[in-house]
Each structure stands twice: as structure tokens, then as C-alpha cells.
Amino acid sequence: MPGQVLPAAVLWDMDGTLIDTEPYWMAAEIELVEAHGGVWTREQAVAMIGSSMDVAAGLLQAAGVGLPVAEIADALNSSVRAAVAAGIPWQAGAHRILGALHVAGVPQALVTSAFEVVAAPFARTVGLFDVVVSGDTVSRPKPDPEPYLTAARLLGVDITDCVAFEDSRSGVASAVASGARVVAVDSHVVLDPPTEVSRTSSLERIGLDTIARIARGEVLDLRDHV
User: Which domain of life does this protein belong to (predicted)?
Assistant: First the structure.
């Protein structure tokens, strides 16, 4: 559209936002806990969405997994990496909007709590991200703002000129605290974000025009309403 001004960059969470990998993480968690004689429910798995690996490992240890954090992380990451390698489970509309932003010349970053062993192969396969910030490449993972601030710094842009997309409470908290414009995507968790956060029920509802509007300060509600 004439006069459309896009953001300096768009910053993307990965799991649950761009790709539907949460079922992979949940399956890996259940398998690991059950292998150690414990029980891991879907409710526990959903509550852990968006957590850093240290937090996730601690919860799994509390559920009976008798392994150190590094071994838990390796088991989960290996399982999810293999699942994604078998075929990228795109969320509806995700690949389209990544491509549209790339064609429009907007820099994009992948900002994820997943470790580099999962994030890097995905990013290489997609080939549309200028920067990757994974959970094991920052000192303070989400909900701290460091991951998003790091992405903006690496891209050479002002974080307040960026739009970030997130599907978890900790991810939204991280992005909001960084100073970015934020879009909460209701995926596996229905979020209740701050009033300054835009919302959508699907990336199918996101286009260059909506991203431009959010970048200039509009707060949009693009969810399905019953």
C-alpha cells in the first residue's frame, strides 16, 4: 500500500509461533519422564511452554528424571531436532509472511528458547533469517529481555523500531520488556498479554499492512471471535 512503512526488523519466536513443534517437545518430555518411572501430564507440558531449558530441566527433575540439566537438554533437543528434520511443521501463514518480509527487504531474526542445535538447522533450511539468537547463546533467557535486545543489536537496529511475534507468556514478557512492538499469537496457550500488545489467532491474519500498522503504534486484535 502507498506510504506503507515497515519496521526496522521483525523478530520471531520459533516453537509454537512459526512452527508447531510444541507436540514434539511434549512427546519428548513424556518419554523422558516415563523412562525414569514418573508421570508427565499434558497440563504440566502446556504450563512449561516458553520456559528456558534450565527451568524445564528443573521441572522434569522434580517429576523424577534423574539426570543432570545438560543430559536432559541433550535428550530433548535431539528428539525435537530429529522430528523437525523429518519435515518442518509450519504454522498456518508462517512461511508466507516470512517470504513476504524477505521480498520487502525487512531484516528478520529468529529469537528462541530452543538451543542452537535445534534452531540453527531450522534457520539454515528456511534461509530467511539474518540473525539467530538461541536459548544457549544468551546469559539471561526469556522472560528476560536479553534475547530480543541481542537480536536487535546484531541486526544493527533500534529495538523500539522492531515488531516481535510470540506465543508464550515468558516470550511475550521478554519481548515487551525489550521495548519492541509485540504481537501475541494464541497457539497452544491462550494468552492474556498487556494492553499494549497486539493479538492474533493465526499468522494467516498477518500481512505486510498489519505489520506496518503495528510498527507505527496501532494495537490490533486479529483473533477469531465467536
Answer: Bacteria
Amino acid at 38: G
Q: Is residue 107 part of a domain?
A: yes
pTM: 0.89
Q: How far apart are CA 129 and CA 104, in angstroms?
A: 13
Quote the distance between the C-alpha of residue 157 and its chain's center: 20
Nearest partner of 93 among 85, 105, 101, judged by Cα: 101
Question: What ranges in the chain are assigned the alpha helix state H?
Answer: 22-35, 42-47, 53-62, 69-85, 94-103, 116-126, 146-155, 169-178, 208-215
222 neighbors 206 (Cβ within 8 angstroms): yes
Looking at 31, 59, 85, the residue that finishes a domain is 85
Domain that holds residue 155: 9-19+89-222
Domain count, the chain: 2
